[in-house]
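re: that chain from earlier
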Amino acid sequence: MVNNLGATTGMELAVVANAATAWLEKRRVNCARVYVGAFMTALDMTGFSISLLRVDPPNREDCPWQIDAGLASGRLDLLDAPTGAPAWPRAAKGVAKPYPLPSPPEGAGAADHDIVRENMTSKREIRASDVSTEMSRIERATRAVKEALEGAEKALTEADTRVGDGDCGVTHVRGAAALSSATPYMHDGGEALSKSELARSIGLQIRKSMGGTSGALYDIAFAAAAAAMTTKDEWFVGFEAGTRAMMTYGGAKAGDRTILDALIPAMEAAREALRADGADEIAALRAAAAAAAAGAEKTKEMTAGAGRSSYVPAEVLRDVADPGATAAAVWIGAVSEAFAKS
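^ sequence. v structure.
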């Protein structure tokens, strides 16, 4: 499914769909249906998103040893069912024939399925906090972020209802809750993840659970952070790389009344604190939290230059802090407090 975010032309979407299909075919992924259209837009945002849905093989017998074979039975029939939805496009249909799968080990059967399930269960029984002290801190921090955002949800929703589309509170709480639940199991079979690997895992979790513009931006930020920390294993290196990636791909800058008006001051304050206090991580976090809160508050005085608020009259924006910036200040503050206590 190739989704138009709002202002991408039909010809550009066709090019994207063709390139995506070719890329998947090279990796032996067969596209049984291809949909191109405006499914979830962000007003006139330029860009696209791509979603994949795994569908069932024609016959379960094609891969009887796979645990999940046939679980998606009927999905193609449901997708092909008649609908009166005016925006649902015609699908480009491919042949729903899976690529040959590797043969199972000789004698594989139900008992082997039980072994796989047992291995998956045992991995879930190992908590990341048992793997390393760092992961114990991360686990506490994500739990604190979840609780802080839950406490701020009502205020975020009320603010976003006035200046946005009203989903800022629930979107952030949903992402934080999913992340808090997943963090305890972010390890590699009992081995601790590097900061880069952890950032990549966090981004993936946010991508799956958060949604909305904020979810996409945080996904971009954590991907950039993960890449930056492969060469320098420091959280603030990742934070700065992620913030700059948001600026590059989100198209906003400081003063545009967006999430960046909390993140950029936090980034700069953390950098200055580290220069003044050496490697004092807690001091840098506290400085970042204070700067993020101040930056979010200052958005009340700003004219919106990007995002949904740019479509809202200035008199409506007055005295309402940007919800995305406020949410960022909330989670940075929660991380700062959690790390200070650990």
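The two ends are 44 Å apart (CA to CA).
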